[in-house]
């Protein structure tokens, strides 16, 4: 059987890959632009004036992000066309994940009432049933498709990093979860909240993955 490592060795020699810094800066710029509009609306409401429609900020931020990334990918179109089928699957998986995350994030902002701050947005703010159902379907379906593409594309080295990262993330969940639950039952801790546990698991997963992949 031909191993993944040998399959990778058969890939055509790549030219220098485009840098990742510029796409990250474009994405951060879009997020900051949405935050500027949100801050302007909050200040407008406090001043007793009529704010902009809640969809204006996300729409402008999305246009900025999509436009900037489109120009970036057009500039490096030759490099992307030269990718092997395996590499196409790899970048398709990452791109699909980024698009779904952007859709859910933008939709979540639109779903909130004007005047809510970031704590309400990501913490205790109520969500509409339509957003909850749509975001859940996008997350579950997109994650399933993205993982299939991703695992069909990665090599042995990245697969090893991913498997160990998944195990480390699992350990980061099973250690604190029962402890928190028991302490809450004894009235020594607040009720168990799944999101902090999820975030801790995600951070540990990401740290271990990056360390094993790039060391």
SSE topology string:
HHHHHHHHHH
Between the first and last Cα atoms, what is the distance in angstroms?
Answer: 28 Å
What is the count of DSSP helices, taking H or I runs of 4+ residues? 10
CA radius of gyration is 21 Å
Low-confidence stretches: 1-14
Share of β-strand residues: under 5%
Extended strand count: 0
Give the count of structural domains. 3
- Helicity range of the residues? over 70%
Backbone structural class: mainly alpha
Shape call = flat
Provide mean pLDDT, rounded: 80
The main β sheet shows up as: none
Provide key terms for this protein.
215 residues; mainly alpha; 3 domains; 10 helices; 77% helix
Structure commentary:
The chain has 215 residues and is mainly α. It folds into 3 domains: 18-82; 85-153, no CATH class; 156-215. It is 77% helix and 0% strand. The chain is built from 10 helices and no strands. Helix 2 (21-46) runs antiparallel to helix 3 (56-75), helix 5 packs antiparallel against helix 7 and helix 8 (156-174) packs antiparallel against helix 10 (194-214). The protein is flat, with a radius of gyration of 21 Å. The model is unreliable at 1-14 (pLDDT under 50).
């Amino acid at each position: 059987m031909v191993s993944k490592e040998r399959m990778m060795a058969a890939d055509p020699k790549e030219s220098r890959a485009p840098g990742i810094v510029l796409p990250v800066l474009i994405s951060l710029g879009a997020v900051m632009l949405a935050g500027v509009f949100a801050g302007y609306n909050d200040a407008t409401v406090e001043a007793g004036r009529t704010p902009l429609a809640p969809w204006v900020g996300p729409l402008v931020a999305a246009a900025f992000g999509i436009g900037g990334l489109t120009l970036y990918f057009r500039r490096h179109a030759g490099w992307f066309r030269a990718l092997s089928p395996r590499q196409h699957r790899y970048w398709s998986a990452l791109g699909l994940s980024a698009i779904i995350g952007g859709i859910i994030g933008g939709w979540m902002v639109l779903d909130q009432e004007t005047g809510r701050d970031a704590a309400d947005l990501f913490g205790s703010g109520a969500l509409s049933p339509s957003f909850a159902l749509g975001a859940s379907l996008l997350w579950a379906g997109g994650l399933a498709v993205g993982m299939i593409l991703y695992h069909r594309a990665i090599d042995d080295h990245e697969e090893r990093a991913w498997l160990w990262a998944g195990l480390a993330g699992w350990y980061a969940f099973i250690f604190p979860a029962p402890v928190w639950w028991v302490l809450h039952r004894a009235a020594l801790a607040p009720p168990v909240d799944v999101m902090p546990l999820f975030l801790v698991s995600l951070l540990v997963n990401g740290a271990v993955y990056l360390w094993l992949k790039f060391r």
